[in-house]
């Protein structure tokens, strides 16, 4: 995500710093490069131009040039202005506890609208709401079945009628059904088309006026850059959107849509889609996004994802075993698996400040394969060996290697990693947070 814009911005900013002492002239010159990087990232032209004007006005002042660390100040200004462009934070769905909340989802075909309906339903259900999805996309033949499947997967009810029906009627019937079914949030999956056209807008306006949704969200594909922004503008002119949900940010290297859409339409980005799986919907945080764009990482989101993904009870059990000095190879394997659930190695590294730059060195590591190998080695051990790895002698090592299709050297390496990890844990288990930090540095 954002690889190319991050590289472009970092290149432009480093260029300024490399030019020696910061002066008004080299800041102005360097910011032109920053503007170029934004345009290459498909940021809308006026947005890029105004952004640079604001940064320049702030950066050439005395405050920056005379400060002790002008480079940090400059990055700080770019960071703040990026946040201002995409913000303020606004991911409330404004749901009421009394009555039925109506959320209308629209978007062009392929943007990820139906998937996002599922993601939203999943999120609402987890928060204790009773969602119901209405299949009102009569345009794409498979959309009704797709929504039904999502409903089954999530155990969320879906209201659907036979293909070819009138979408307004489907929405109204769906709403009536929600009342009897006891749902309190109804998500309408409306039609999409390949392009914005009058018929589509007419259909959506009809639903809007007859169903009177509380919130209207546009789902758009971040990877389409300025096209996404243009479609957001067209939808907003017709429907007065309450928010945008930007999908496929996981595959977006440029970031142009994320940066421009709020500025061009005035509509906030509520959520972002970070993958095809249903749990990959994140609230949009302009500050964290600005950090990711500048390659400063996003440790807060990583931490939140970890809390959501990790099995708290299992973690607690592992910690107890660790405290008693009984951390086993089985625990080691579980931990590795949990970390892998957070995303690919590359994804995780990008979210850790300062690690993004190291990515190149890790290009050749196939974490999936590594994990598979570790899994196979541990599976080839007896229960007793997993709990007491010090009993693994040479002949056992050879047997385990043969059983797992690996080399004895691989088994050795794993045992050594495990040994390092458990001694580190032993060392840290009795320490406070600050001392733990020191222990890791040693
Ligand atoms: P619709 O025509 O707008 O309803 O689009 P779909 O919901 O069928 O999605 C189109 C494709 O985009 C599907 O293959 C989805 O799995 C995929 N998709 C949706 N959201 C995301 C996302 O956030 N990231 C990625 N990588 N793929 C997504």
UniProtKB/TrEMBL annotation:
GTP binds at residues 107-114, 189-193, 247-250. It is found in: Cytoplasm. It catalyses: GTP + H2O = GDP + phosphate + H(+). Transmembrane segments: none annotated. One of its GO terms (biological process) is SRP-dependent cotranslational protein targeting to membrane. InterPro entries: AAA+_ATPase, P-loop_NTPase, Signal_recog_part_SRP54_M_sf, Signal_recog_particl_SRP54_hlx, Signal_recog_particle_SRP54_M, SRP, SRP54, SRP54_GTPase_dom. Keywords: Cytoplasm, GTP-binding, Hydrolase, Nucleotide-binding, Ribonucleoprotein, RNA-binding, Signal recognition particle. It is an enzyme of class 3 (hydrolase). It comes from the Bacteria. Pfam families: SRP54 (PF00448), SRP54_N (PF02881), SRP_SPB (PF02978). Residues 268-281 form the SRP54-type proteins GTP-binding domain. GO terms for cellular component: signal recognition particle. GO terms for molecular function: 7S RNA binding; GTP binding; GTPase activity. The keyword Hydrolase applies. Involved in targeting and insertion of nascent membrane proteins into the cytoplasmic membrane. Binds to the hydrophobic signal sequence of the ribosome-nascent chain (RNC) as it emerges from the ribosomes. The SRP-RNC complex is then targeted to the cytoplasmic membrane where it interacts with the SRP receptor FtsY. NCBIfam families: ffh. Belongs to the GTP-binding SRP family. SRP54 subfamily. Composed of three domains: the N-terminal N domain, which is responsible for interactions with the ribosome, the central G domain, which binds GTP, and the C-terminal M domain, which binds the RNA and the signal sequence of the RNC. Part of the signal recognition particle protein translocation system, which is composed of SRP and FtsY. This is Signal recognition particle protein. The lineage of its organism: Bacteria, Pseudomonadati, Planctomycetota, Planctomycetia, Planctomycetales. The gene is ffh.
